[in-house]
Amino acid sequence: MENPEKKPNTRGIWDWFDPRGRKVGGWGFILNRLSAIGLTVYLYLHLVMLGKLAQGPEAYDSFIAFAKQPLILFGEILVIIGGLYHGLNGIRIALNSFGVGVNAQKQLLYGVLTLTIVGSLIFGLRMIAAH
Amino acid sequence: MQNTISQPKAGESYLLWFIKIVSGLLIVVILFIHFLVNHYLAPEGLLSHAEVVAYYRNYPIVPIMEGFFLVFVVSHSLIGTRSILLDLNPKKAVMRIIDALLVLIGLVATGYGIWLLFAVINWGA
Amino acid sequence: MSEEKWTVNFVVYRKKGEGEPHYQTFTLEVSPDEYVIDGVERIWAFHDRSLVFAHACHHSTCGACGMRVNGVEKLTCITRIRDVTTNGGTLRIEPLRNFPVISDLVVDMSRLYVGMDKVHAPAVHPLSMAPLEGEGIKPPREVPMDDGKEYLRLADCIECGLCISACPIAGTAEEYLGPAVLAAAQLQGLNRAPDLTAIVDCVDGVWRCHSAYECTAVCPSNVDPGWRIMDLRRQVLAQRIRRWFGAA
């Protein structure tokens, strides 16, 4: 019966992100992976954009003026949400990995989500108000 | 699918994971200070070139902190990226190329970031 | 069992040989207090004798009847129809994920068995290891107890494979040992079986886990693989850090 060449029954990367049938921890993983990828892309874009500082006041100041458009503001708010979630969930996973609070991982995740929502609202509203 | 598990495959161990966790925690701490310093304590939120230059010159601790932040955030992002790529079960030869690329990206990003910090501090000097 | 009758559509995954997979619907009249495996057996008995599925004990001991029921991994002999659908509703029955499909609802679980052997928890013990002979089978490092200090029934793994199917990573990381195997390693304990450290502290070991805890959510035997993997990480770290300071 056994066929060592047979491929496993999987949809590959799609299974990382498919939330159907998942429980709380699975949702936590999906959000963690999405925020990780998003923040990594942002980090390197951010580094490239900061290069404008080396080009002088005109380049940097005109970039800052350009960055005030709503689409970029929306992106920045996404970075805040992703950063807050990834950071807080990282603390949860680190604690779990040292044997702390594993049996309370669901409750910890609810805490992470609550803090992410509250923090995002505070930062997001401030950013919109200052816009 | 491989039905026989080979000998333990080196390439990811406690040490990389430990560095990822420690750098992650340091990022959380420094990011908090970074936000506070750059966007709340700085009078105009560091939104003009002149203000960034003046701020970095007047408070040398700020660029030093930013330098450490850069190292932690680049390490964390690259170890994390590597971990995601390892989830795809790459062949050893492919992983060797990926490792070389990640080290290169890390070195370039860190070198570039530190050069940028000095470029800002020395602007117009 | 109540006299209540439900009409349920069993939408069953079918795949033979190299043929394309497809779904076949069987409408059955069932008691909602029957179990999902009862419906599958009835399909085989009265509708289609070519349906291939695995089952044996019917009381959650053998671990043979693991399937995905409406997208969630279930041991179908203890999953009541009432708990997973409604009268007139649908039950989508699929084979476990992350294993090769042999036929219809049966998968090749060699990946799990080979891993279990690797961490000294083989599915079948040779007669010479039986407790009456020689040293006997070593009990696990700790036998989980509930709050009343009773030993937990079925706290040991029944090798049903649900956890590997539910793990979001096991599909792409084909050589990842997976939750059941890592849980078995944790039960042995790294202090007692130091050779396991190298097996679990590697690319295919504990670091492949990304804490989705889906394994624990679907485990029918209270093994709690999620907790065990985290504990195993703690054991690996403790052992490695002790080594930094020169301890054995």
The portion of residues forming beta strands of chain B comes to under 5%
Number of strands of chain C: 7
Structural class of chain B: mainly alpha
- Tell me the greatest interface: A-C, 34 and 36 residues
Strand order of the largest sheet of chain C: 2-1-5-3-4
Radius of gyration of chain C: 20 Å
* Helix-strand pattern of chain B: HHHH
As a percent range, the share of strand residues of chain C is: 5-15%
The helix content of chain B is over 70%
Shape annotation of chain B: elongated
Write the layout of secondary structure elements.
The complex is a heterotrimer of chains A (131), B (125) and C (248).
Chain A: H1 14-17, H2 24-50, H3 52-55, H4 57-66, H5 70-97, H6 105-130
Chain B: H1 14-41, H2 49-58, H3 61-86, H4 92-121
Chain C: E1 6-14, E2 22-30, H1 36-46, E3 66-69, E4 72-75, H2 81-84, E5 90-94, E6 101-103, E7 106-107, H3 110-118, H4 162-166, H5 179-188, H6 196-200, H7 214-218, H8 225-244
Parallel strand pairs in C: 1-5
Antiparallel strand pairs in C: 1-2, 3-4, 3-5, 6-7
Helix pairs in contact in C: 3-5, 5-8
Describe the structure.
- The complex is a heterotrimer of chains A (131), B (125) and C (248).
- In chain A, 76% of the residues lie in helices and 0% in strands.
- Chain A has helices at 14-17, 24-50, 52-55, 57-66, 70-97, 105-130.
- In chain A, helix 5 (70-97) runs antiparallel to helix 6.
- The longest helix of chain A has 28 residues, at 70-97.
- The mean pLDDT of chain A is 91.
- Chain B has 125 residues and is mainly alpha-helical.
- Chain B has helices at residues 14-41, 49-58, 61-86, 92-121.
- In chain B, helix 3 runs antiparallel to helix 4.
- The longest helix of chain B has 30 residues, at 92-121.
- Chain B starts with 13 loop residues before the first helix and ends with a helix.
- The mean pLDDT of chain B is 88.
- The mean pLDDT of chain C is 88.
- In chain C, 48% of the residues are buried.
- With 248 residues, chain C is α+β, with helices and mostly antiparallel strands.
- In chain C, helix 3 (110-118) runs parallel beside helix 5 (179-188) and helix 5 (179-188) packs across helix 8 (225-244).
- Chain C has a 5-stranded mixed β-sheet. In chain C, strands 6-7 form a two-stranded antiparallel ribbon.
- Chains in contact: A-B, A-C, B-C.
- Chain B: It is found in: Membrane.
- Chain B: Keywords: Heme, Iron, Membrane, Metal-binding, Transmembrane, Transmembrane helix.
- Chain B: InterPro entries: SQR/QFR_C/D, SuccDH_FuR_B_TM-su.
